[in-house]
């Protein structure tokens, strides 16, 4: 039986599973692996902090996601399909692993933030 997202350990599982898919994703994987050449050892803990702060108000994330994505867009133009696909993979991963109020909340927040990042990045 699936549980809700309860703590940082659950967020780590979600984030790790999501980026395992993204690394080999046919639509947006190359943006991470080839264009940005992401250092996963630093990126993954930053994403744990980001989502933990959103769901549990830990105050432990202090990055600038807008700038990161603008920089990426200037290296390789992104489009709405890239962001829509990101949301589908993220939402599918949440649904595979969890169910409950926090699971619903993280999907809503991801969609909203994706839209904000997309409009600011592609503007
Ligand atoms: C097409 C969609 C997206 C692509 C290709 C993308 C790609 C990236 C890349 C390459 C990085 C930098 C990783 C690094 O070098 O450390 C990054 C960072 C990040 N992304 Fe995305 N991203 C996308 C959508 C999103 C969405 C929708 C969210 C939130 C809902 C998000 C949240 C973040 C955050 C929080 C960071 C860390 C920023 C920092 O503090 O340095 N991204 N993304």
From TrEMBL:
Keyword Metal-binding attached: yes
The organism's taxonomic lineage, starting at the top: Bacteria, Pseudomonadati, Bacteroidota, Flavobacteriia, Flavobacteriales
Pfam families assigned: Bac_globin
GO MF annotation list: heme binding; metal ion binding; oxygen binding
Domain of life of the organism encoding this protein: Bacteria
Alphabetized InterPro entries for the sequence: Globin-like_sf, Globin/Proto, Hemoglobin_trunc
Alphabetic keyword roster: Heme, Iron, Metal-binding, Transport
Stored SUPFAM superfamilies: Globin-like
Origin species: Flavobacterium aquaticum
Record-given protein name: Hemoglobin
Chain residues that bind heme: 69
């Amino acid at each position: 039986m699936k549980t809700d997202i309860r703590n940082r350990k659950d967020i780590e599982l979600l984030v790790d599973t999501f980026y395992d898919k993204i690394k080999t994703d046919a639509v947006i994987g190359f943006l991470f692996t080839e264009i940005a050449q992401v250092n996963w050892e630093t990126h993954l803990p930053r994403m744990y902090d980001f989502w933990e702060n959103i769901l549990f108000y830990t105050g432990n994330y202090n990055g600038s996601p807008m700038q990161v994505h603008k920089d990426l867009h200037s290296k390789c133009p992104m489009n709405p399909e890239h962001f829509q696909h990101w949301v589908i993979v993220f939402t599918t991963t949440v649904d595979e692993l969890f169910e409950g109020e926090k699971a619903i909340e993280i999907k809503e927040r991801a969609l909203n933030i994706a839209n904000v990042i997309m409009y600011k990045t592609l503007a």
